[in-house]
# Entry
Amino acid sequence: MGSIGPVTANPYPWPYDGVVDTARTAVLCIDWQTDFCGPGGYVDTMGYDISLTRAGLPATARLLAHVRSLGMLVVHTREGHDPDLSDLPANKRWRSARIGAEIGGAGPCGRILVRGEPGWEIVPEVAPVPGEVVVDKPGKGAFYATNLDLVLRTRGITHLILTGITTDVCVHTTMREANDRGYECLILSDCTGATDKGNHDAALHMVTMQGGVFGCVATSDDVIAATTE
Amino acid sequence: MPTITAARPAAYAFDLHTTALLVIDMQRDFLEPGGFGESLGNDVGQLRRTIGPLTALLAGARAAGLTVLHTREGHLPDLSDCPPAKLERGAPSRRIGDPGPNGRILIRGEYGHDIVDELAPLPGEPVIDKPGKGAFYATGLDELLAERNVRSLLVTGVTTEVCVHTTVREANDRGYECLVLADCVGSYFPEFQRVGLDMIAAQGGIFGWVADSMDVLAVLPTTPVLQPSS
# Structure
């Protein structure tokens, strides 16, 4: 197994403990689903520009090829709800209806954000390969009401590299949850994206304040340059 | 039901019987000179403007008989609940557990760890001690709210983009309806105060609603609502 670090990152060389075994590091791919970055999906239906949420796909695909060659653990998450919507909070459904894309309603890619529908699937550019873990989550955070923490601890993971969408919503919520649980986190600016560029930038900036209150920010090139086999 | 029509992105209605006021981390360590916040290079004056409006809101919530809950961020004296990544990260002038003018930084039981005098909890008001930024992780908050049948949270405290945001995100995923009160939450950074509030109300209110404390006080009754007997 190889190692990773120190990665050139903001606000400190990541990780805090200098160098970490790649066996203790996982790459999280958060919600790279058609519903968030594909034509006809949830975000497209709400009227947002999906070129913003797709922007991180090439860099993420390149990062995945690299970390897979090193044998690192890759974990994918998918936001979605059971077909009977029994795990959909009433306020979440109400809000989605208010902006014209009700969760569970019919859309061009099947029922919006419902498990098993075409729109809920991960896009091909960064699709899981056999052996990679996929975590289904009902919320924005990947730790609430899922087995993610158990999976990571069982594999001995202590450090997380975060990619995915959207930066300010699901990626940030998950990074905050991971940070509270003691994982040392690195978010990649070129492997994330948001429906609003200003919120993407602000979310990254927030990470870097106060000595790295949630961890660090870097790019995929910084990570690739800091790994050794 | 009381309704705040001025809330963004839309009117916020709440049932007095199922609503609680949540006061997050209004601790001396964050709000007073010599504490953890200042040791990270922050101007604590940016947070102190919340104390006035929050004092008035707290009085109003107590008069109306709402459940009031307080949180405090901190660690056990032996630091056994402080992740190494949190303890050792960065280069603050004082780390968690180091001695400071108000006692050991962010340690439970120390003077600096406690809530500022103006907002001191009353007997009977739950105080939730949390090791992280979010008030739901590794605490009994979710169970406590369920016991009291709370579904809506009026959210106040510090800091807007860190502990307030993390807690609101956790609450939202759990189905609570959160109204964040702009003048009762504070950040060391004006940019983050603004964008933090904008993010709450973005995309149809993806994490909740935003209003001012005066909007709440205007619709709260001035005598206690009768809590349903359990």
Observations:
- Chain B touches chain A at residues 10, 40-42, 83-86, 88-92, 131-134, 137-138, 161-162, 165-166, 169-170, 172-175, 177, 188-189, 191-192, 195, 198-199, 202-207 (CB under 8 Å).
- Chain B has a mean pLDDT of 94.
